Amino acid sequence: MFKPVCLRYLGFLLLFLPLLGQASDLQAYQGDSPFDLYDGEELRKSPKKVFAHYLSVFPLSIDNQPPDSDYYARHYLNPQGEKGKHAGYGGFIRQRPLPRSPRPGVDWLEQDLKDELRLASDIGLDGFSFNILSLSGRHWERLETMLKVAHEQSPDFKIMLMPDMVALKNVPYEKLSEALWSISQQSAVLKSSDGRVVIAPFNAHNKTAKFWQQLKTDFSARGSDIFFLPTFQGWWKFIDQYRSVSDGFSDWGAGSLKGALSLNRVKAPERVHDLTGKIWMAPVRPQDFRPRSYKYFEAGNSELFRTMWSTAIEGKADWVQLISWNDHAEGTAIRPSTKTRSAFYQLSAFYTQWFKTGVMPTIRRDAIFCFYRIHSTQVKPDLSRQLKLFDAAGEPQNEIELLAFLARPGQLEIEIGGQISRREAPAGITSFKVPLRNGTPVFRVSRAGIKELELIGREPVGGGIVYQDLLYRSDYLAAPY
Predict the structure, then answer these.
(1) Roughly how many angstroms between the first and final C-alpha of the chain, as a whole number?
(2) Is the pLDDT confidence value at 415 over 60?
(3) Strand ranges across the sheet with 391-393
(4) How far apart are CA 426 and CA 411, in angstroms?
(5) What is d(CA 223, CA 176) in angstroms, rounded to the nearest whole number?
(6) Cα–Cα distance between 162 and 53 in angstroms, integer?
(7) Pair 308, 285: CB distance under 8 Å
(8) pLDDT tens track for 206-258
(9) CB atoms within 10 A of CB 254
(10) CATH class of segment(s) 363-481
(11) Whole-Å CA distances, 221 to 174, 218, 225, 243, 446
(12) 359 exposure class (CB count in 10 Å sphere: 0-12, 13-18, 19+)
């Protein structure tokens, strides 16, 4: 029933070994999970479901080139990439998937998707909610490849069809209907417990309830019914209009801690259950930073992620959508990546098990999670390069966090800039925050004056900057078995 999470994806990690200078990537996975992880297949038997939003724009590799000169390096991370269109805000993204060596063979994308499905499957996720951006071309082809890989590799790992009704808003009804039907009968497509195809459009309100009812009618006439699970932005504004056509409801949720706490007062799961008797898919996101929109949402280190998970668990949500698996343009990725490492991935394993079993996993081994920005929100960029300051959603916070999972009581330490802050912590989960200072942060767990666990921040906190970079860095270290 139980297995150490890090061992399951050892094959995935071995992809990084040939990379010169990339050996340190393995440190993100040093040690094992701090709790006993249920087998992913066992967790997927639960009626509670967890899906991770998948954006085909950001696969593990875009072009299968060496990571220091591939498309991510040349165009997405580089302010001058893509003919300089990202120069005003310092690059399209601030981090990328953990790099790998070029893979031999023409099926490298398929091999990459196998690794991603394995990573997600290992922590008990039920599948990906695939954001359908187009009905042809490379994004549609990646959906088809993912369905093939899921069928061959993980029969119980499913793909939720999520047409993006911002990108597809002006697509004719007949074209959308035909495209969705063409893939809906594949075995890897998510079905409800009674066998209906789950279709969960993002921004479903860009089309009328009549539009979606017509889709359900047309599918039914072809012999396959739809389980309609729309995702809104502000679900309460649309519940009356879409109640008759919907089999459940979901929302994109808040990007800031303040927004998430405010939405908690709406009590979405309870209201959806009471008003409609239908399921609620709760949103959970780690953070939200959008360079091209000149905007960041204040997550309060790990607090947004933990708050949204608690809301889903305590509110008795039926399903959860992690937003997201890999959206680097909005800084929401939980997939192991270069700046956030495996921290949100490991936390997702913990909370997924808690959500599905109804019992908080017992912490067996100590673990350290750290979260911090590499500069204060008050530090000004070079406004001759960055066109304008990034706007904040929520009250900006400038703190360093040590999130400790302790098997028994201990002392927590954060050292930075020549100062050491300490706090006694009980067994269990403790969030310890101190003001952000310049320097390289060091995070420790000690007992009786003896250091037992130490995690050194990979990037220092500095003063002067050219472009604002308000993505929270994170990392993870657990004691070995």
Answers:
(1) 17
(2) yes
(3) 288-290, 295-297, 391-393
(4) 9
(5) 18
(6) 9
(7) yes
(8) 999 999 999 999 999 999 999 999 999 998 899 999 999 999 999 999 999 99
(9) 23
(10) mainly beta
(11) 15, 5, 8, 22, 65
(12) exposed
In which band, very low, low, confident or very high, does the pLDDT at 27 lie, cut at 50, 70 and 90? very low
Q: Which two tokens stand for residue 38?
A: 């249920």
Question: What stretches of 243-342 show up as alpha helix (H) in DSSP?
Answer: 257-264, 268-276, 303-314
pLDDT at 263: 80
Cα–Cα dist 450/299, whole Å: 33
Specify the residue for token string 């998970």.
Answer: 309
| C-alpha to C-alpha distances, 123 to 50, 163, 222, 344, nearest whole angstrom | 10, 25, 36, 12
For range 312-338, the mean pLDDT: 96
Confidence of residue 9 (pLDDT cuts 50, 70, 90): very low
CA 34 to chain centre: 20
Domain boundaries, the chain: 2-61+97-362, 363-481
Instruction: Report the CATH fold assignment for 2-61+97-362.
Output: TIM Barrel (3.20.20)
Closest to 50 measured CA to CA, from 125, 112, 150, 157: 125
Q: Write down the mean pLDDT value for the chain.
A: 92
Is the fold of 2-61+97-362 the same as that of 363-481? Answer: no
* Residue 84 to residue 325: CA distance in whole angstroms: 27
How large is the average pLDDT for residues 125-141? 97
